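A reminder from the course coordinator: this example appears on the midterm review sheet, so study it carefully.

Given structure:
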């Protein structure tokens, strides 16, 4: 899974993907659920040909990319211009032709499989 560190990289990856589905895994080191989801997503990634789905990972804390993230439990607020509107972790967003086509929250591998089947 390729890590993306800047908005420029993010935009470039979406453009390069063209008509392929792009799955973006938003993570944070302090969120144990995102670590679990990332491990499972890595397993799922190998079920799909790389020509079908592009898998990206974005760490919302260690990143130049500007995300809207409010996590009250950790008293964490970033007042940055949102472009992905990530309000909850874990979040996986799906893009095609540079536009968001689906989004799932929490730890739902059933939803993940359903979205991948629907949009591939």
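Designed residues:
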């Amino acid at each position: 899974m390729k890590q993306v560190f800047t908005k420029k990289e993010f935009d470039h990856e979406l453009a390069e993907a063209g008509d392929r589905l792009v799955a973006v895994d938003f993570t944070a080191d302090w969120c144990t659920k995102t670590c679990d989801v990332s491990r499972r997503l890595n397993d799922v990634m190998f079920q799909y040909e790389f020509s079908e789905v592009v898998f990206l990972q974005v760490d919302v804390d260690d990143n130049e990319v500007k995300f809207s993230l409010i996590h009250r439990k950790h008293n964490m607020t970033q007042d940055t211009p949102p472009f992905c509107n990530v309000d909850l972790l874990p979040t996986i967003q799906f893009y095609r032709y540079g536009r968001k086509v689906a989004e799932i929250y929490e730890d739902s591998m059933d939803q993940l499989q359903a979205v991948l089947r629907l949009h591939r």
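Residues 32-45 form the longest helix (14 residues). The chain has one domain: 2-119.
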